[in-house]
Specification:
Layout: H1 14-26, H2 31-50, H3 84-93, H4 96-108, H5 112-117, E1 123-126, E2 131-136, E3 148-151, H6 154-163, E4 173-174, E5 191-192, H7 199-207, H8 216-228, H9 233-239, H10 253-264, H11 277-288, H12 299-305
Antiparallel strand pairs: 1-2, 2-3, 4-5
Helix pairs in contact: 3-4, 3-7, 4-6, 4-8, 9-10
């Protein structure tokens, strides 16, 4: 609003949006974040030129101006999967409700918005495996093309069981607990958590010395651990909900067993490296500065090479 709110639709174009872009860059916003806002502007202008009409049936604009988005190549942050050691530093620093959510993501690979909106009505229990799966409606899946399945391994299932009964609708919820008079009823009811990337997350990552760790990096961590465990690329794609030509429209029992078996491989530290290129680069720079000695190659990694 401070930048284009006073303008008519016909006055909105690249030149009038330039001050907004400059201000957001000065605030340190990434190109991708700025592009999300520009996408909303572009959508409104396109609707004004094609769909929205006045009382005489004329579109609000004759044509929609082309809104130039910012380049992403060379401007995107590298994914930063975490090691098992970093995980052990992070989880105790998180508030309990965020620690449970982070542990669930680290064992399922789901996105922040999915774990925050996870509902009990989506749960399907599979007694043969002793686990649950969650049939997530397509409205909560990126792209909204089809529903997807969240398969719980033993660690994720333990998180689910600990949350059971807290809220009638949502799996992951929060309430402020009493610090005094703990025998009295809580001051508030459980409520849904809107996002994991809140003050609690940001304080915890700083306390753990993990810098600009994103919630989405936990999802990248799952992908890296699955690959290190030797899980087939197609299975990794199914777990992370990556679109592939081979992905079927309906999950079978055999596929659920396959996904569960793959996720069971990442429930504990395997002794593998579990480091991303970004982590290796940072450690290399630290060694050049004389801050640390070269790490030993994990025995299991040597065995795989042999």
């Amino acid at each position: 609003m401070p930048f284009i709110g006073q303008l008519e639709l016909a006055q909105i174009h690249d030149a009038t949006l330039a001050p907004y872009i400059a201000a957001r860059k000065q605030e340190g916003r990434a190109n991708k974040t700025i592009n999300l806002a520009l996408g909303i502007v572009r959508r409104i202008l396109n609707l004004a030129a094609t769909t929205w009409r006045d009382q005489d049936g004329r579109t609000w604009l004759d044509t929609a101006p082309k809104i130039t988005v910012l380049p992403l190549v060379g401007h995107q942050r590298e994914p930063s999967p975490i090691s098992w050691g970093q995980q052990r530093k992070l989880l105790p620093k998180l508030p309990d409700h965020l620690a449970r959510m982070a542990l669930f993501v680290l064992n399922t690979g789901v996105r922040d918005d999915v774990v925050c909106s996870l509902e009990w009505d989506w749960e399907i229990q599979i007694p043969e495996l002793g686990i649950s799966v969650f049939d997530v409606p397509r409205e909560h899946v990126k792209g909204k093309k089809r529903g997807r399945l969240v398969v719980c391994n033993s660690v994720a299932q333990s998180v689910i069981e600990a949350a059971r009964g807290q809220h009638p609708k949502y799996v992951f919820v929060y309430r402020r607990e009493r610090k005094t008079n703990t025998t009295k009823a809580p001051l508030m009811k459980y409520r849904r958590i809107q996002t994991m990337n809140n003050t609690g997350w940001q304080n915890a990552r700083a306390a753990a010395g993990l810098g600009d760790l994103h919630v989405h990096d936990l999802r990248h961590t799952v992908g890296m651990r699955l690959r290190e465990a030797g899980v087939a690329e197609g299975t990794v794609a199914d777990i992370l909900w990556h679109s592939t030509r081979s992905m079927t429209q309906h999950y079978s029992t055999a596929q659920i067993v396959e996904l569960h078996g793959a996720l069971e491989k990442i429930t504990a530290d395997s002794g593998a490296w579990n480091k991303s290129l970004a982590t290796l680069r940072a450690e290399h720079q630290a060694r050049l500065a004389g801050e640390q000695s070269p790490p030993k190659v994990p025995t299991r990694a040597l065995e795989r090479v042999a």
